[in-house]
Design goal:
BirA Bifunctional Protein, domain 2, 26% strand, alpha+beta, three-stranded mixed β-sheet, globular
Length: 243
Amino acid sequence: MSDVVATAERRLELILDGGAPGQENMRRDMSLLDACARGEIPGAVRLYWFEPACLSLGRMQALDDVDLDACARDGVDIVRRPSGGRAVLHDQEVTYSVVCRSDDPIFGGRVLQSCSRIHEVVAAGLATFGVSTTPRAMPANLRRDARDAAAIADCFARPAAHELLDQRGRKLVGSAQARRAGALLQHGSVLLEAPRAAAYLRGEAGTSLGGVGVRELLGRELGRAELVDALAEAFRSALERSS
């Protein structure tokens, strides 16, 4: 289903899509990005998840990073994202995608500015549960930081600039972006449970911090529907404030 926030200048669609296989989820996101790049739509926000569980790889990530036998054994699909970044296991989580023009007044801007704007909305959604997050500070050397991150196959083993961390510095939200013909697509994964992608990657030793899920931070069970509702309300509020 979808909600449409309309203004005199644009119509922004909030799409609550539910679960779908990895290839179908990426097809839907690419369809939105292509339509935005062609000027047919101003953009959209999708909230969804993956059924069955799926390991998504960043646009330039090598398939050699994946333990194909482990994926086959556990029935884990594999898909390549059009956005960058590293591998994410989409299982106990909610994924968002934001598509808009790169100069969109709500979510646009240069890459890190756009990421920051989107993460502010995600942080607001998490705050409704009392989950406090902090964006990772800008590294002193962005290029070196990007090279170091590219050497690790698991997205949640290392946070990028502006990604959301808990109060112990553990990554709670992973994100990656792609741009095409003046339009952008940002993917983000909000974890319900601690990340498990390392189980399906070759040679992954993890890190001392790694990632964390919302359920651990709350100390209680949290349904996926509750998380979707909170994120949807945060995005809806951001769109309405800007209309």
